[in-house]
Design brief:
Elements: E1 2-6, H1 14-24, E2 29-31, H2 33-38, H3 40-43, E3 48-52, H4 62-81, E4 85-90, H5 101-114, E5 117-120, H6 124-133, E6 140-142, E7 165-170, H7 179-188, E8 194-199, H8 204-213, E9 220-223, H9 232-237, E10 241-243, H10 255-262, E11 266-270, H11 273-277, E12 285-287, H12 292-311, H13 315-329, H14 332-343
Parallel strand pairs: 1-2, 1-3, 3-4, 4-5, 5-6, 7-8, 7-10, 8-9, 10-11, 11-12
Helix pairs in contact: 1-14, 4-5, 7-12
Length: 344
């Protein structure tokens, strides 16, 4: 079958590569959305269009964002008009960047209303789609998030300073990821043998802001640069576990948590969809919160709990259980089979 998987490629996320690879194993010919809009003959041969993050808009200035919206809205309506089977994967509750939210929500509701199937990576998404968007249960397909085992090279031997609990935040460094809150928590933990490394690309203005806010924090190291794929396993080997202080209002799935488990690391993370689906919940340092102050308090408590487990030398046991779960439950073969069934 000729299908579209959008985005077709990603410089920063192996998820797309894994999903397309799984589809090709079933004999599907995979194209990008731009491919079919540039090639009318191909457009009419396409049956299935699988969209990811399509509700997100590009641009900073108003005119840039509105132009991005107009393009996306035109594309989705053309796909609907010509009877394409739209498959959409639900990655977040709502877009993380909530500027121009009414335009993003218009796109989102249009996609949800017209999708043949909606792929979810966390069980809690069922309830959200049914209650908030009146989606029939028959349209919803649960598919495990693929693991990242081996995607960034082999698991390297730990290179951490064993006198400290070494925490890592990894990924795009953006304001909605609660980095400032994490810095405040680390400031309150200066008396503990706990270190934090923040690694990932940030816009220059935001990078400068974080550098200023981290001044005087001897327990924090900032490496605000893009991580090359070949260096990912090295970066992961330099930590004991990851800390992911996500915004629970928008966050649902976490590919970074799946990455951590795939490389034998546990995480400190709010109780978002990905974490709720983990069978070995006691191996994850999870917490909840209602407001910013409670987030700081509960994140700090989760870090200190992780420190106690670190002192008891039990983190490796936690990580091994999570890795085994990734092998068994988040296998790419299961993912490919589930998608293939959804397309037919």
């Amino acid at each position: 079958m000729k299908i579209v998987f959008e985005p077709y490629s990603s410089r920063t996320n192996r998820y797309v590569h894994l999903m397309i690879g799984a589809l090709r194993k079933y004999g599907h010919e995979v194209y990008s959305l731009s491919n079919i809009f540039k090639n009318p003959a191909l457009f009419f041969k396409i049956k299935v269009v699988h969209l990811n993050w399509f509700e997100n808009l590009n641009g900073v200035k108003s005119m840039e964002v509105l132009y991005s919206f107009a393009k996306q809205y035109l594309k989705i309506n053309l796909l609907i008009l010509f009877g394409k089977d739209i498959i959409w994967t639900m990655h977040n509750k709502i877009p993380h960047d909530q500027s121009f939210l009414k335009y993003k929500m218009l796109l989102l509701r249009t996609i949800i209303k017209n999708a043949k199937k909606i792929i979810i990576h966390s069980s809690v998404s069922y309830k959200m789609l049914i209650n908030d968007f009146s989606v029939p249960e028959s349209k919803i397909v649960y598919c495990p998030h693929p693991n990242y085992i081996g995607e960034y090279g082999e698991i390297l031997e730990s290179k951490t300073d064993e006198q400290f609990l070494n925490l890592l935040f990894i990924g795009s460094v953006k304001p909605y990821k609660n980095i400032e809150l994490l810095l405040e928590v680390m400031s309150s933990l200066l008396g503990y043998p706990i270190k934090l490394k923040i690694v990932g690309k940030a816009l220059p203005s935001y990078a400068q802001e974080l550098l200023q806010k981290s001044e005087g924090l001897a327990n924090v190291e900032l490496r605000l640069e893009f991580i090359q794929e070949e260096n990912m396993n090295m970066v992961l080997s330099e930590c004991d576990l990851l800390v992911l202080p996500y915004d629970m209002a928008s966050s649902l799935n976490s590919g970074t948590a799946i990455l951590a488990f795939s490389y034998k690391k546990s995480v400190i993370c709010p109780n978002i969809g990905t974490i709720m689906d983990i069978e070995n919940k006691d191996c994850v340092f999870r917490y909840e919160y209602k407001d910013r102050e409670e987030h700081k308090k509960n994140l700090s408590s989760a870090i200190l709990k992780a420190y106690d487990i670190f002192r008891q030398e039990q983190l490796d046991t936690y990580s091994a259980s999570l890795f085994k779960e990734m092998l068994e439950k988040n296998n790419i073969d299961i993912v490919g089979h589930t998608l293939n069934m959804a397309y037919n």
